């Protein structure tokens, strides 16, 4: 019995999901960083 042929779709799915989650995390962090930077510039102008 060959288990690798049976589990391949699950492994690929898990891999794809983890890559997608990583990409989402990176995008979210970049957006948060940009927002924080904008906020910092806004506060700096007020001084």
Automatic annotation (TrEMBL):
Species of provenance: Hyphococcus luteus
Topology relative to the membrane: Single-pass membrane protein
Annotated GO biological process: cytochrome complex assembly; heme transport
Transmembrane segments: 12-30
Protein's UniProt keywords contain Nucleotide-binding: no
KW Transmembrane (keyword) present: yes
Subcellular compartments: Cell inner membrane
Name listed for the protein in its UniProt record: Heme exporter protein D
Reported function: Required for the export of heme to the periplasm for the biogenesis of c-type cytochromes.
């Amino acid at each position: 019995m060959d288990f690798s042929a049976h589990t391949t779709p699950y492994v690929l799915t898990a891999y794809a999901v983890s890559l997608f989650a990583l990409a989402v995390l990176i995008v979210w962090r970049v957006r948060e960083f940009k927002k924080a930077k904008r906020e910092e510039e806004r506060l700096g102008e007020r001084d």
